[in-house]
Design a protein that fits this description.
Blueprint: E1 7-11, H1 17-25, E2 30-37, H2 44-47, H3 51-55, E3 66-70, H4 80-87, E4 92-97, H5 100-113, H6 123-134, H7 151-159, E5 167-171, H8 172-177, H9 179-185
Parallel strand pairs: 1-3, 1-4, 2-3, 4-5
Length: 186
């Protein structure tokens, strides 16, 4: 691959990132990774494989100006900003946000549907389990319904490593009701 990835959609989970990905993927100047959710920066095992491994997700890149990837669990993952900065200190970011409670409920239902959460664990009980889950060596952000919605906390961590000018922060409702305007602003 020529060049480096220079745009990441980093979150939030269940906030319209997949729709945004499909819209942007149609643009001729943007080349997205062949797989939407490239978890290279978040998963130690993959990160240790190095940049060549990461770049293997971009086999058909030609001369597009923007080389992009997405992974919603990078937003809450505290190790990702430093890793991304090491890779490309000029990286640009798109962050999609959704009402935290609506996002949490949607994520919980999605986790049940995908067997990431046991059906017998209620939404309230899942919230209670988060402090324990966060202590894990490998937290599963698919099961972090409250924590993933702490947008200020997560964005503050990212903005310690990158200037706020590198971020476009969008609301899911804006994409839903005014997609042309949102895409134009991007």
């Amino acid at each position: 691959m020529k060049g480096k990835v220079n745009l990441l959609i980093i979150g939030a989970q269940k906030a319209g990132t997949t729709s945004l990905y499909y819209y942007l993927k149609q643009h001729p100047s943007i080349y997205f990774s062949e797989v939407k959710e490239v978890n290279y920066f978040a998963i130690d095992e993959f990160y240790k494989r190095g940049v060549k491994y990461y770049h293997s997700f971009f086999p058909n890149h030609k001369n597009q100006k923007i080389i992009a990837s997405a992974y919603v669990h990078m937003l809450p993952d505290p190790k990702c900003p430093e890793r991304v900065k090491e890779y490309n200190p000029d990286m640009k970011f798109i962050v999609m946000l959704r009402d935290p409670m609506k996002r949490a409920i949607s994520a919980y239902k999605y986790a049940i549907q995908n067997n990431w959460e046991k059906e017998e664990i209620s939404f309230t009980k899942a919230f209670d389990l988060e402090s324990e889950r966060l202590k894990s060596d490998k937290p599963n952000y698919d099961n972090m319904y409250f924590y993933n919605g702490l947008y200020y906390h997560h964005l503050s961590n990212w903005m310690k490593h990158f200037p706020k000018e590198n971020f476009i922060i969008l609301k899911d409702t804006d994409l839903k009701h005014n997609p042309e305007q949102v895409l134009s602003s991007i």
